[in-house]
Amino acid sequence: MRLTHYFLPTLKETPAEAQIASHRLMLRAGMINQTTAGIYTWLPLGLRVMEKIEKIICEEQDRIGCHKVLMPTLQPAELWRQSGRYEDYGKEMLRFKDRHEREMLYGPTNEEVITDIIRQYVKSYRQVPQILYQIQWKFRDEVRPRFGVMRGREFLMKDGYSFDIDFESAKKTYERIFESYLRTFARMDLTAIPVRADSGAIGGDMSHEFQIVAPTGESGIYYDAAFDNLTLDQMTLENVGKLYAAADEKHDPAACPISQDKLKSARGIEIGHIFYFGTKYSEPLGAKVVGPDGQIITLEMGSYGIGVSRLVAAIIEANHDEQGIKWPESVAPFKVGLLNLKMGDKRTETIAESIYHSLNERGIEVLYDDRDERAGTKFADMDLIGLPWQLIVGTKTIEAGTVEVKNRRSGERSEVPLEQALKMVI
Ligand code: ATP
Ligand code: MG
After folding, report:
1. pLDDT above 60 (res 200)
2. What is the enclosing helix (H) or strand (E) of 211?
């Protein structure tokens, strides 16, 4: 992509309304634009990141046998009356009437709709387990929308729903999803700490919130220091389940099973939340199947959420410095930023163009800063948008037959011959 052809409205000034780094940087890097309180337009750069996140989530969901669907954002109030939630849900739910005076709502979550689908089609125990998921916009009229997309009113969520024949099978499903969440977040370079959110009663509800550590997080958490050194292959429920993690209101220092020197306390951002809740919705809505002996069995359900749009901000909270964002490669909007420091100079243009073509040919996503701007502006913008690699073409390096390569995360710079520079970023 050539920057002169792109839509990347970066800002020099720090927007006054932004209180936390991710909000500031998303506005400054031209990723989002506020349409109205808690509701945002995703601009090209921001959308590219969100789509990378979606892709990782889908790959990991599909890997464990979940199936993607797409439910509508609008739902009839009638379904929520059947589940008994319509009156309880409160002001977070946006309610309205269509032209025929039918009561409607903008879905804050989708248990009712998915249970309605399952009750229509799934009639036999042989048709379960089944896990369906979607990535769809939700609306919750939060009292205090804030921190940009971190707590929006309209936000993108991955929501999955499982249907099993009994508790044992539902528990296995829950565990499978638990592990897949750890993998999903690890692929985004995030160490997610699963914090129990239930009462702990056996056979009762099970629930975990997945938190990532960041000073601006809304929840306080205590956790085992071993979380900080987990590698992907250690992220099984067996290993991780043994490690202590608790929300601050549930942490009892006297009863804490690990010693003080192994205990860490921090602020956390909730990026995912999973629940097992049995027949809470399947019973009132009538999602029942015929069992092997002809008996009628009410399906056991769970819900599994990931804050997709919140993740974009959460990843920035975990990966930035004074100059800007430092994207992990897996979610970076482009892998390489190519800077031509002297537009109009034949030699720099020839080299920069040849790099641009080589990378495109190899399928490497590259953003080429071909604007007629000062070097300082180009450096600042490139650091701000945080692409993992920068290839810098200037008159000085060209004379030495080299190109400068900068790694945004480590800050390491080197001047190397062109071929070697390409090898480093491919
Ligand atoms: P929170 O405690 O942050 O309000 P929640 O418990 O209401 O979250 P869920 O209903 O479990 O959240 O939704 C699943 C995920 O969606 C959450 O883990 C979070 O990452 C994300 N999420 C929830 N509310 C918002 C919001 N207002 N803006 C952006 N993301 C959100
Ligand atoms: Mg909430």
Report:
1. no
2. strand 206-213
